Amino acid sequence: MESIKKNWYRYVVEYIGITIGTIIMALSLNLFLEPNTIAPGGVTGLAIVIKKIVGIDVDITNLAINIPLFIFGLIVLGKAFGAKTLYGTFALSFFIRILPNGNLVNELLLAAIFGGVLMGIGLGIVFRFGGTTGGTDLAGAILNKYFPGFSTATFMMSIDLCVVAIAGIVDKKLETSLYSVIALYIIVKVIDLILEGLGYAKAFFIISQYPDKIGNTILEKLNRGVTVLKGRGMYTGQDRDVLLCVVNRSQVTKLKEIVHQIDKNAFVMVADIYEVLGEGFKEIKTTG
What we know:
The chain is of the alpha+beta class. The protein has helices at 2-33, 42-54, 58-77, 82-98, 108-128, 136-146, 152-171, 174-196, 211-221, 252-262; strands at 201-207, 227-232, 239-247, 267-273.
């Protein structure tokens, strides 16, 4: 009984999250993108182009394209996209219809930037709660089923670029396509930011003649775990220990100082880590 209650709570939170995400997407479309004919790919971008040509509202075109696409997806892919995709599709069209519509800015660059940021935030929230709004991800998955030689991501990018190009042709301005590309780029980056988070860490790979001393000093002074990976130098043929340590930003300089003090000739690689789950960092948990 308790597990059922937890499941209900999780589903409610997920659908609330998808609802909030689609509201933000609708505001982006209504206030920044559609009034300036900025079409950053996807079904909504195509809907903006169609409205420019024949005057059909974006919410109607969104449903007219996505519902048959969803049905076809169920036939081809099974229930992979499920109820959340259907809900996200209807919710987006609903909020496009009822929320205010107008051009907040006349500057195309500002419209592309703020429209892209809002759209990225909205999509990122929808994705984070396990939903989608149909569109190019569904179309890409269907095409991948018939043409497995090309990845879903390749089809998605191809569709998005086609929509961007068509927007410029319809508006008879190269600038429209260029601003649509800017918006598309911002959307992708903001989605990554929402899904991966702001608090990135750094991963250090350290190769030294004194791995034990460096590892013990890190444990003692930084209170961070160190993993020993086994490696072998290709040129020398000698086995070497490679230390792996993940630290937060505030500890980066201190770790470099520790390595430098013990072994000035150590070989150190530093990589960005956008999300770290587990002891000493963020707790592993699911949505809801």
